[in-house]
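re: ur question from yesterday

yeah so i grabbed the chain u mentioned. its 194 aa long if i counted rite. heres the sequnce exactly as i have it in my notes:
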Amino acid sequence: REEVWQRAAGPKGEGGAERRAGGAALPHSAEMPRKLGQKRDADLGKLIAQLEEIHTELGGDEKKAEEEANMDEFTRLKKMSARQVAEIRKMISERDDLLDASSGSGGKQSVQLSSKIREQLRGVQETHKKMQTQLHVEEKDLAKGKKKNNLTAEDIEQHSQMVELVAKHIVECEQLEKKRYQSRVGGRTSALTG
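ran it thru and got these structure tokens back, copy pasting raw so excuse formatting
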């Protein structure tokens, strides 16, 4: 991998390691090309080609596809739910930042983000249901003595705990989503009643 990184940095004379250590240095006037735009395009093309080569050497998309092919169904669903929950949390944070920056209204962007958050919540709930179904299938197979997935009782227990944990994450995300409405409504009712 070190060889790959050195190749990406380029020779020191081309602004590789020296340029990175000293920041983005401007070229000397003697090196300045007449058509700077064409030079930049050529440099960008070289950099993109190097990045694509590095991506291919490190495995890129083939590694991900191979890893997913070797996963059992429950693990695939677990990873999918983790990605979905992380995305929901990120979107909630973005929406809250928008609301804070705009004194509570947020405008069209916050409405769109809220809609996407609710859509993502429905998606992660569906994934959770699939995880529960898969867990029940695994439990039945173990009870019948089938060794289809080579799962032990401890594996089933871990899967059960994982299903519970995903459910807790979903509830927490739902609470974060609703918190915005509760704080706004709660603030208005207390002002009206007080």
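noticed a couple things. The chain has a mean pLDDT of 76. also The two ends are 66 Å apart (CA to CA).
anyway ttyl
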